[in-house]
Specification:
Helix 2 runs parallel beside helix 16, helix 5 runs parallel beside helix 7 and helix 8 packs antiparallel against helix 9. It is globular and about 70 Å long. Helices cover 47% and strands 6% of the residues. The chain is built from 19 helices and six strands. The longest helix is centred in the first third of the chain and has 21 residues. It is mainly alpha-helical and 477 residues long. Strand 1 and strand 2 form a beta hairpin.
């Protein structure tokens, strides 16, 4: 079939890809992404921004409801379940990152878990169905990012999940709802008019809403397309369509469905070891290497020994925060992450608590940090590096460099460490038994006959089950 437009080729891919197109590598990588996203989502249910979004969403109700992860007594309409779960996922900036730059999973997975509960019980939605729709949503994001050189760099104007994530969400929703090719085109057109959020809100409580709105608006776009709402069927072809978001926009018709080449097959994602902007992970790695010259084991480094700290990093303005005041600013601060690692020897979830950020030793050390931006250190997650030089009061200087941190796609987390991260995050909201069952379920997702098994686990144990679990642990102790 001869295609008339780029937008039509996207609709054909969304509608036409089947489980038979999935490769073993794509299945394995996407299962890792799903597990990690669920874990950071469960962790995010304890954040202030999650509770604010939850309270807001309680004003909506319908006769169809979906689960908010880890909240067995809290069900809301699927669009708002996707919204609240999207907030949880990105509330700590702990979710996966892809290249070109975006957080791919957080806009898609909440859509699929919400819709899988809202769909009629027959026919059953299988784990393979979910994996296919998930990968369609990821693929659409990657293809759109490939149409612009600007998209390859760390963003300056728009937050990518709010742009490509919205269309990925719409694509995943369209796939799982079984939309026709024409309806898929309409859903993409509607989603483009929902897309976009400025980088000015990075490092604030509003940034997680970018992910949440991408998830919610994607579902809404698919629902509206099903009802016959029409948009511009050339929206992805036009500079005044999706091209409005990226400079040098040069769209191309997608490959034929025969032996379809998935982008996830070619480009893996990065998984974070601590909840902070991805660029700070190079800083943490280099700072940890310098620290080994200064102290042994986990001893606290006296801040008064240090005269000067120089960070040689890319010029990324929204991660240049010399004196962060909040947890969100600290997660977007090259300076804070360097100082916290030098002082403490590790970066963890509590590292971003207000009491840690405002420690006198941290504030003293922050005053000694200087930034340099070497001309060869470009703001690109595939090529950037961090070099750190620490000069002591006695004149000695120690310099270390990180080109690839552990967790980057070039040095991926082992399955053991990815599961350890999931356990650490998910046990804050779930029982240990539920956590282990979730790991097993996701690990065998392609063999799951009914996704209700997964969504039941996502609700978490009821209060009575939690009480029973606590009593059991006390008895064993």
């Amino acid at each position: 079939m001869k295609l008339k437009s780029v937008t039509e080729s996207f609709a054909r891919v969304i509608q036409g890809l089947t489980a038979g197109h999935l490769t073993d590598r794509v299945v394995q990588r996407s299962k890792r992404m799903i597990l990690d996203t669920l874990g950071v989502g469960f962790l995010g249910t304890g954040t202030e921004v999650f509770h604010k979004a939850s309270e807001y969403s309680k004003i909506y109700s319908s006769n169809i409801s979906s689960t908010v992860w880890g909240q067995p007594a809290f069900s809301i309409p699927p669009t708002y379940a996707a919204f609240v779960n999207g907030v949880a996922i990105h509330s700590m900036d702990f979710d996966d990152t892809w290249h070109p730059a975006t957080h791919p999973s957080g806009a898609v997975l909440p859509v699929l878990t919400a819709l899988s509960e809202a769909l009629p019980p027959s026919p059953k939605l299988s784990g393979l169905d979910l994996l296919l729709a998930f990968n369609v949503g990821i693929e659409v994001q990657g293809r759109l990012l490939d149409f612009s050189k600007e998209a390859s760099d760390i963003p300056k104007r728009f937050h990518p999940p709010s742009v490509v994530g919205t269309l990925g969400s719409a694509a995943a929703a369209s796939k799982i709802l079984g939309l026709s090719m024409t309806e898929c085109q309409e859903a993409l057109a509607i989603a483009v008019s929902h897309a976009g959020a400025p980088m000015a809100n990075a490092a604030t409580q509003t940034k997680p809403l970018h992910m949440a709105n991408a998830a919610r608006h994607g579902i809404e776009a698919a629902f509206l397309a099903m009802l016959g709402l029409q948009g511009n069927k050339q929206v992805l072809d036009m500079q005044t369509g999706f091209g409005a978001f990226y400079a040098n926009y040069s769209p191309k018709v997608l490959p034929n469905l025969d032996s379809y080449p998935w982008l996830l097959d070619q480009q893996d994602v990065a998984f974070k070891s601590f909840p902070s902007h991805l660029a700070t992970h190079w800083v943490a790695d280099a700072a940890a290497s310098v620290r080994r010259h200064l102290v042994t084991d986990r001893a606290v480094l006296p801040s008064d020994r240090i005269e000067r700290i120089v960070l040689r990093i890319p010029d990324v303005q929204y991660v240049n925060r010399p004196f962060p005041d909040s947890e969100h600013e600290a997660r977007h601060s090259f300076q804070y992450v360097a100082c916290a690692m030098l002082l403490d020897g590790s970066i963890t979830v509590p590292s971003f608590h207000r009491c840690q950020i405002h420690r006198p030793q941290v504030r003293e050390l922050l005053c000694k940090v200087e930034l340099e931006h070497p001309h060869d250190n470009l703001p690109n997650f595939n090529t950037l590096y961090c070099e750190i030089s620490v000069t002591l009061k006695d004149g000695a200087t120690f310099t270390e460099r990180c080109d690839t941190f552990y967790g980057h796609w070039r040095k991926p987390l082992s399955q053991k460490d990815l599961q350890a991260k999931f356990r650490a995050n998910a046990t804050r909201a779930l029982s240990c038994d539920t956590v282990e069952r979730l790991i097993e379920t996701v690990d065998n997702l392609e063999d799951l006959e009914d996704c209700s098994v997964l969504t039941t686990l996502l609700k978490g144990p009821s209060p009575s089950e939690m009480a029973s679990q606590s009593i059991k642990h006390l008895t064993l102790s």
